[in-house]
Design a protein that fits this description.
It comes from Phyllotreta striolata. The chain is mostly helical. The chain is built from eleven helices and two strands, in the order ααααααααββααα. Helix 5 crosses helix 6.
């Protein structure tokens, strides 16, 4: 049936039929990908976060659908669809998603581990977190590659956050020592995957000869690439329905 999307009544009919289709595919045919779409529908169209969260959770637990694990983990982190946020539940579901090879889940699990916070239920473990971020980068998560590059650029000092580090101190003071060669490798991959900050870092590395042989031509090329990406991001309008929730 062809719908006239200029007609309010036909739009409502289309949306109603879409919900019926997703419910049938999920509950009767037990298709995990359709259950995830149903949860997206409940979230984006119905704005019923509580029901959406329940569907994401069940689809993760029962059908091992990684994207639903990611979404329920994000819901738990934000307290969406529930009375309060729960970092432990969020971490557990990011871990489930990562074990199902969902790159964004690995990114979120890794970031929770490398970040020092006041949540005792998620203990900081930089080494484990970086291993998980490496898995996310391997599975072509551009943000994970970028974060790893940044950690190797500055090093991770003991008992400090990555963002508060300096070059001062002995190598024994660091959990992860500065390594510009590794920083370059991760920045290159991140840039190739479309992370503009990785491209900007590459430009600086080539300009200074850090982690790679100095090359002003390539420095200029990567700077231009980063600026082009920035313009594209600023001008882009995206529709997130059916794409899953981006990590925060």
């Amino acid at each position: 049936m062809a719908y006239n999307f200029k007609s309010e009544s036909e739009v409502k009919e289309y949306i109603n039929n879409l919900g019926i289709e997703y419910r049938f595919g999920c509950y009767s045919e037990k298709k995990p990908e359709v259950c995830h779409l149903l949860a997206d529908f409940l979230e984006s169209i119905k704005k019923d976060f509580e029901k959406a969260g329940k569907v994401y959770k069940t689809n993760c637990d029962d059908y091992k659908y990684g994207k639903s694990c990611l979404k329920y983990g994000t819901y738990s982190l934000l307290g969406r669809g529930s009375k309060k946020a729960d970092f432990k539940i969020a971490y557990d579901y990011f871990e489930k998603g990562c074990n199902l090879d969902e790159p964004d889940s690995c990114l979120n699990q890794g970031l929770l581990l490398v970040t020092k916070n006041d949540k005792p239920e998620v203990k900081q473990d930089v080494q484990k977190g970086m291993r998980i971020l490496e898995k996310a980068c391997k599975y072509e998560n551009a943000n994970a590659c970028y974060y790893l590059s940044g950690m190797y650029i500055v090093g991770i000092k003991k008992d400090n956050l990555p963002g508060s580090l300096t070059d001062k101190g002995n190598s024994d003071d660091y959990q992860v020592a500065k390594d510009m060669t590794r920083a370059f490798e991760f920045a290159l991959k991140g840039c190739n995957l479309g992370n503009m900050y990785s491209c900007a870092n590459l430009s600086q590395m080539y300009a200074k000869g850090e982690g790679v042989e100095k090359n002003q031509k390539l420095a200029d090329e990567y700077k231009s690439k980063a600026l082009d990406m920035q313009k594209e991001v600023q001008g882009r309008q995206t529709l997130t329905f059916q794409e899953g929730l981006n990590p925060t």
